[in-house]
Specification:
Elements (H helix, E strand, L loop, with lengths): L1 H14 L19 E2 L19 H5 L20 H10 L2 E8 L6 E8 L2 E8 L4 E7 L4 E5 L6 E6 L20 E8 L2 E7 L5 E5 L5 E7 L5 E5 L1 E5 L14 E4 L7
Parallel strand pairs: 1-12, 7-14
Antiparallel strand pairs: 2-3, 2-13, 3-4, 4-5, 5-6, 6-7, 8-9, 9-10, 10-11, 11-12
Length: 256
Amino acid sequence: MTNKLKIVVLLLASLAFLASCSDGNSGDADGEGPIVLEPGISSGDPDPDSQSPEDDDAAADDPADNPAGDGFIDKGEATTVADLIAAHDKITSYYFEQTIPYADGSVSLKVWYADNKMKVVANAAGGEINESYYDYNERTMIYYTPADGNDAIKMDFNPDGEDAPDNPKDEDYAACIMLGKEELNGQLCYILQTGIGDKLWVSTKYGFPLQVEFVDHLGDTYTVEYRNLEINTVSADEVAVPDHVSVTYLGGGSAL
């Protein structure tokens, strides 16, 4: 159990890079430029965009305005922050992939979210694959390494803590500062800055980030994309712990 605990600590530390865990520094501690993992985009001129929001639901029902029939519309340059919030509220599930860097190699993440639960599969370059299951209702997480067998451990976790994984559904756009607008991968995005200084490139259609820029605890700046994004396609079964996994709760020692 001691070795698994060490692995858990390492995994949680890696996921903390994605969470809101920076110290509020604005750049690299050594004065070097930002580290860009994937093609980033520069901030545009600030645009406060004071236009009043329109009726999204009525427009979403019009096939001409919403040809995809997915309940989301894109107002383009006319989008307001209120529109981003309205789109964000329509998201019930998502899937995305990310790559996070470390001194000794990168870690690739696949993230599923549905039913207020999250599944994170972490694959370190040249290392083992780990799975974590977060329940935001119970405020617990389950850690599992398939290569080690069917045993998993369960522990409490704080969704607001530094070790919590990145969950875009927790973002409060109303509390962000508008920095500008840019196009990313053919999609217009609003660049919003959070209270701790992270920058989010938020899709004007889905109200979901397509890219994030953050400063880690060492003062290094990273720009990371949310790749292969899927909205409202994930089922509750996809975020459930597999039936064959035996889970032991560390707090009380009871098994599920």
